[in-house]
Amino acid sequence: MSHTPPPGQQSFLRVFEPLSRTLENPVALGFLALAAFFIVRSIVMGASKGPEPFSMKKVPVTDTPAQRDFTPAELVAFDGRDEGTALYIAVKGTVYDVSKGRGFYGPGGPYANFAGRDASRGLALSSFGTEVLADINGPVDALDDLEPSEKDSLDEWAGFFAGKYVAVGRLVNAPGVEATDGAGPEKSEASD
Ligand code: HEM
């Protein structure tokens, strides 16, 4: 019995000869590996592109913290006073990394009042007043009492932040803190 493959199988195997020669050549092997890398990379990057570039799902995981929940008191740690720490603000329940806007929100910036805080009510009312910033030990501002025009204004700001900054998590009530229905703490405590 001969070990020579039948003629049909021989020509079939010949198709693979250039490939086996390539695999024996280290330079050609290098080129092949490089080409494979770029093909895989373009597939992976292509798959990550979508119609909503700023949706929560597309947050790059390499240079941003994982999505997480922040209580108002925890968010304060990200008020930008420590230059080595990211700068966060919350808008309508979403926490954004606004570190690239340090000039706006960092110490001495025009909007530093919002750093490490829930900026929702201040943005809705176009106010820098401390009375529009919810108590960090109280519940998350439910914002239910805003006028329709204030809600519209806040929605526009929410779109602005979603478009410019990376969302890093959600603003949530601390354990044991009850959600309120309506005004922010300061406003509801006001006597007038
Ligand atoms: C005298 C009134 C104001 C002036 C002259 C002013 C001016 C500006 C300017 C020039 C920018 C930069 C726009 C750009 O990058 O294209 C800006 C951005 C901004 N302003 Fe004002 N502003 C005023 C009032 C307010 C008020 C009342 C609020 C909210 C309480 C506010 C919140 C913001 C925010 C959140 C940004 C976006 C900063 C960012 O890019 O992250 N501004 N403002």
Would you write up a description of this structure?
The chain contains 8 helices and 4 strands; from the N terminus they run αααβαββαααβα. The longest helix has 23 residues, at 26-48. Mean pLDDT is 79; it is low at 46-62 and 185-192. Strands 1-4-3-2 form a 4-stranded mixed β-sheet. With 192 residues, it is α+β, with helices and mostly antiparallel strands. Protoporphyrin IX containing FE (HEM) binds at residues 98, 101, 104, 111, 122-123, 126-128, 164. Protoporphyrin IX containing FE binds next to helix 6. InterPro entries: Cyt_B5-like_heme/steroid-bd, Cyt_B5-like_heme/steroid_sf, MAPR/NEUFC/NENF-like. The chain crosses the membrane at residues 27-48.
